[in-house]
Write a structure and sequence with these properties.
2 helices; F1FO ATP Synthase
Length: 76
């Protein structure tokens, strides 16, 4: 029973991390397009900042995947 709870926790950890990242990327892309449409001359600077934030945003689910793998392979 305990291993089933650990597997459910790992699945939720990975799934909700992916969902949060998808929502974050949608908001980030929308705000970038909005900013680039308002001020086209700022688009290269906004694009650089968008990619930096996208890289940081990608780090969160990777940490979740690592913790989920730890839960699955070590504790279960």
């Amino acid at each position: 029973m305990e291993s089933a709870i650990i597997l459910i926790a790992a699945a939720l950890l990975i799934g909700l991390g992916a969902l949060g990242t998808a929502i974050g990327f949608a908001l980030l892309g929308g705000k970038f397009l909005e900013g680039a449409a308002r001020q086209p001359e700022m688009a290269p600077m906004l694009q650089t900042k968008m990619f930096i934030v996208a890289g940081l945003l990608d780090a969160v689910p990777m940490i979740g995947v690592g913790i989920g793998m730890y839960l699955i392979f070590v504790l279960a």
